[in-house]
Amino acid sequence: MKLYITPGSPYARIVRIVILEKGLENRVEIIPAQTRLAGSPYYRINPSGRVPYLIRDDGVALEESALICAWLDHLDGKPLFDLPANETIWETRRLEALARSITDGLAVWSREIARATAERSPTLLQHEAQRSRRMAALWETEIEHPWMNSALNMAQITLACGLGLEARNPDLHWRPDHPKLCAWFDRLCARPSFAATTPPRA
Ligand SMILES: N[C@@H](CCC(=O)N[C@@H](CS)C(=O)NCC(=O)O)C(=O)O
Predict the structure, then answer these.
(1) CB atoms within 10 A of CB 19
(2) 18 lines ligand 1 (CB under 6 A)
(3) Strand order in the sheet with 53-55
(4) Protein residue with least CA distance to atom 13, ligand 1
(5) Are 181 and 115 within 8 A, CB to CB?
(6) Among 15, 77, 80, 174, which residue is least crowded by beta carbons within 10 Å?
(7) 53 touches 4 (CB < 8 A)
């Protein structure tokens, strides 16, 4: 299989962590893609131009990190990341959605910073900076939830990949005033699958 990524993408990192956690690294070739470039050859591979993008051995291709992770997780018939089949599913889905929410905002912010200075929107930069502060404050409370401290799950992976964008964004300061979130993040990032996929500094 082939997985197209960019090294700084939090969504691609979510998939790369699942690959390592599932021991699939010898079955999936990781290929850097050139995104956000007019005429990129990658657009002939994936017309949407987005990563992550998994091309399976049967030639069928999948987009969307959540779908790719679920598919890879089920390959061996022993999924690690399925949600519980009882009423706690709503709590776990709520937390996963919250993790996705902060990550989506931080990804939009990082992408804006990657543009030429003259093309950046000050309104967007301010909007995402303020959102990130509100969401970090919310997560300082939610991080004590048992689901965020149990066996590794998609909510934990998603949140950590979002917060990990601090390496790509010099204006992202979610750590001050959030000691519990810091301790949780640093503990999780010591895990080999997280350490091996740390995004490069911008
Ligand atoms: N919802 C998608 C988001 C994927 C996404 O937005 N990827 C960004 C990189 S972080 C991308 O490929 N951007 C290229 C572009 O916008 O052309 C997922 O979870 O996979």
Answers:
(1) 24
(2) no
(3) 29-32, 2-5, 53-55, 61-63
(4) 50
(5) no
(6) 77
(7) yes
Task: Characterize the bridge pairing of strands 2-5 and 53-55.
Answer: antiparallel
- The whole-model pTM stands at 0.98
Q: Give the rounded distance of the alpha carbon of 81 from its chain centre.
A: 15
Q: Supply the DSSP symbol for 4.
A: E
Q: Which of ligand 1's atoms lies nearest the C-alpha of 9? A: 10
Q: Does residue 22 sit in helix, strand or coil?
A: coil
Q: Tens digit of pLDDT per residue, the chain (202 long)?
A: 999 999 999 999 999 999 999 999 999 999 999 999 999 999 999 999 999 999 999 999 999 999 999 999 999 999 999 999 998 999 999 999 999 999 999 999 999 999 999 999 999 999 999 999 999 999 999 999 999 999 999 999 999 999 999 999 999 999 999 999 999 999 999 999 999 999 999 8
Q: Residue type at 92?
A: T
Q: Which amino acid is at 130?
A: Q
- Decide if 53 contacts 46 (C-beta within 8 A): yes
C-alpha–C-alpha distance, residues 158 and 186, integer Å? 15
Pocket mutation for ligand 1, best pick of 50, 53, 71, 159 (most atoms within 8 Å of C-beta): 50
| E strand residue ranges, 35-112 | 53-55, 61-63
